[in-house]
Write a structure and sequence with these properties.
Cell wall formation. The chain has 341 residues and is an alpha+beta fold. It contains 7 helices and 20 strands. 22% of the residues lie in helices and 27% in strands.
């Protein structure tokens, strides 16, 4: 019988979310194996408690009080499953820091370099289908293994069943609060063939740099415009880049020639707009509203330099959404999700 992990009561989540919103969990525990996870699920069910899964805390909005049992993986195991002359398949445990995994991944293969310095954990990466500079985690993902609370057993969900789309997946919808991700399987390419489609990576000269050079470049770019959450509390890009029809994009581009517009390869009739540009044009860049603000170097980032709570964030979110929609006719949706939804 596996040992029951330590369960803490009335546990502060202030340092468990990168916006550092004031929050407290009714109960909190960490696990390092599927056996420990199963024990926690059984304990919660015996007490009729909801289970909430916390990753790195970088893409959630914490309420003042979280009812139920909050659990977090501390497993950081990385293991090679198989390889051939073109690729290598690797399982990475959910508790692994995402950026640490990207840096480590080039020891095995390639494809994740563009996703360097994205905050959060490996287990959270498929939930949001994280992406940057033309690469999404679903491009390299094979499957996701986790514990089904409804079925009380471990399950593996293949990529085709993950319903991946822009910043979305089955884990944010049908399986939300019913599937605890324990590990993610990746297929990395042995040949280093970087995606340089998006600015500023398109300024790089192909075949003149290594995988580590690309990681260093991405880290430099992101560090120059995104605040370190350890120094300035934030949740990274707060709003999604809105997807609109190509006709709408063309109309807006005619009215606003400097508006950045990007193609959506999965939907040729759609285009992606730069949310940060829209927000900046509305005058929010660097503007503070009580203990929260839109970052002075990147208007897409909401920061909480003061002691903030969920209501402070919600007020600024609403202000930005209202002004952008009023001026451009485009609705912005937030990337971070309310933790209790």
């Amino acid at each position: 019988m596996p040992q029951m992990p330590v369960i803490s009561e009335h546990y502060s989540l202030h340092d468990k979310n990168t916006l550092r919103l004031a929050s407290c969990a009714e109960y909190f525990a960490t696990f390092t194996s599927s056996d420990e996870l199963a024990e926690l699920v059984r304990w919660a069910e015996q007490k009729s408690l909801a289970i909430r899964v916390l990753g790195g805390g970088s893409n959630v909005l914490m309420p003042e009080f979280v009812q139920g049992l909050v659990i977090q993986s501390k497993d950081e195991t990385v293991s090679v499953v198989s390889e051939d002359e073109n690729s290598v398949v690797i399982d990475v445990a959910a508790g692994k820091c995402w950026h640490d995994w990207v840096v480590e991944s080039i020891q095995y293969g390639h494809g994740l370099e563009n996703l360097a310095l994205i905050p959060g954990s490996v287990g959270a990466s498929p939930v949001q289908n994280i992406g940057a500079y033309g690469v999404e985690v679903s491009d390299l993902l094979v499957s996701v293994t986790g514990f089904s609370i409804a079925e009380q057993r471990m399950l593996t969900i293949e990529k085709a069943d993950c319903d991946f789309s822009y910043r979305d997946s089955v884990f944010k919808n049908r399986l939300k609060n019913n599937f605890v991700i324990c590990s993610v399987r990746f297929r990395l390419n042995k040949l280093f063939s970087p995606n340089l489609e998006y600015a500023p990576l398109n300024s790089l000269e192909p075949n003149t740099f290594s995988a580590q050079d690309l990681i260093d470049f991405v880290v430099g770019v992101r560090s120059a415009k995104l605040p370190d959450p350890r120094l300035i509390p934030n949740a990274g890009s707060f709003f999604k880049n809105p997807i609109v029809s190509t006709e709408t994009a063309e109309d807006l581009k005619n009215l606003h020639p400097t508006l950045p517009v990007y193609p959506v390869h999965s939907s040729p009739q759609s285009a992606k707009l730069a949310a940060g540009w829209l927000i900046e044009q509305c005058g929010f860049k660097g503007k503070a509203y009580g203990p929260v603000a839109m970052y002075e170097k990147q208007a897409l980032v909401l920061t909480a330099p003061g002691e903030a709570d969920l209501q402070d964030v919600a007020r600024l979110q609403s202000l930005v959404q209202t002004e952008v929609e009023s001026r451009f006719g485009v609705r912005l949706d937030p990337e971070p999700q309310l933790f209790t939804d």
